[in-house]
Amino acid sequence: IDVNRPELGLIDVKKAGVIDPTRVTKEAVQNAVSIASTAATMGALVVDVPEPEAPAAAGGMGGGMGF
Predict the structure, then answer these.
(1) DSSP bridge pairs for 11
(2) What number of H helices and E strands is found in the chain?
(3) Is the pLDDT at 30 greater than 90, yes or no?
(4) Of 27, 37, 61, 65, which residue is the least packed, with the fewest Cβ within 10 Å?
């Protein structure tokens, strides 16, 4: 027994001609795991690269001649 999506009712999968409903479920789970692992990998790969700090400005002129 399974749900028939277009008609939103229960059907007997063997009478409806579905040969192996377990295989369909297995494929769906494998696809979901594949998508989830891809999303997790993308989240791990997207990072902010810090910009290098600019060097400090040079100091002002030194005092001279009584200043």
Answers:
(1) 2
(2) 2, 2
(3) yes
(4) 65
- DSSP E strand boundaries for 1-67: 2-4, 9-11
**Taking Cα atoms as reference points, which of 24, 46, 27 lies closest to residue 35?**
27
Quote the pTM value.
Answer: 0.38
The rounded percent of the chain whose pLDDT value lies above 90 is 10
The predicted model gives 20-48 an average pLDDT of 81
Q: Give the CA angle between residues 9, 14, 19 to the nearest 5°.
A: 115
CA 9/CA 56 separation, integer angstroms: 72
Of 46, 11, 38, nearest in space to 2 by CA: 11
Map tokens 């795991």 to a residue.
33
List, in order, residues 6 or more apart from 12 with CB less than 8 Å away: 1
